[in-house]
Amino acid sequence: MNNSEENTDLENISNPIKTEEEVEKFTENTNEETNEVDNKYKFGWSNYSEITNGRFAMLGFLAIILIELISQKSFLNWAGIF
Questions:
Q1: Domain co-membership, 32 together with 55
Q2: Residues 31, 65: one domain?
Q3: Do residues 56 and 25 both lie within one domain?
Q4: Helix boundaries (H) for the chain
Q5: Count of the separate structural domains present in the chain
Q6: Would the pTM count as exceeding 0.70?
Q7: Domain extent for 20
Q8: Of the residues 43, 49, 54, 78, which has the fewest C-beta atoms closer than 10 A?
């Protein structure tokens, strides 16, 4: 590879969007991604809320397991329920 090819490659890396069409495509894609994100955050029974609740439930279950391992007591006994 000679110097002119290397310079062209470096120019493409530093400025990947050169034409107005590429700028418009980038803007359209960005707007579509924003709309997709806005659709995820709905109030009520949505897919996003179910995933979030599931993740918090997994963290809570992991916390109970860690409490039992560290304290050498059952969680109910440790919490004072039994």
A1: no
A2: no
A3: no
A4: 3-14, 20-40, 47-71, 75-78
A5: 2
A6: no
A7: 1-39
A8: 43
| Tokens found for residue 58 | 């997994």
The predicted structure's pLDDT at residue 71: 93
Angle at 50 between CA 42 and CA 30, to 5 degrees: 45
Cβ neighbours of 67 (radius 10 Å): 14
- Same domain for 31 and 54, yes or no, is no
Query: For each successive 10 residues of the chain (82 residues), what is the average pLDDT?
Result: 53 60 68 59 81 96 95 91 88
What pLDDT does residue 40 have? 63
Task: Please give the structure tokens belonging to residue 43.
Answer: 């109030």
Identity of the residue numbered 43: F
> CA 58 → CA 39, 55, 72, distances in Å?
25, 5, 21
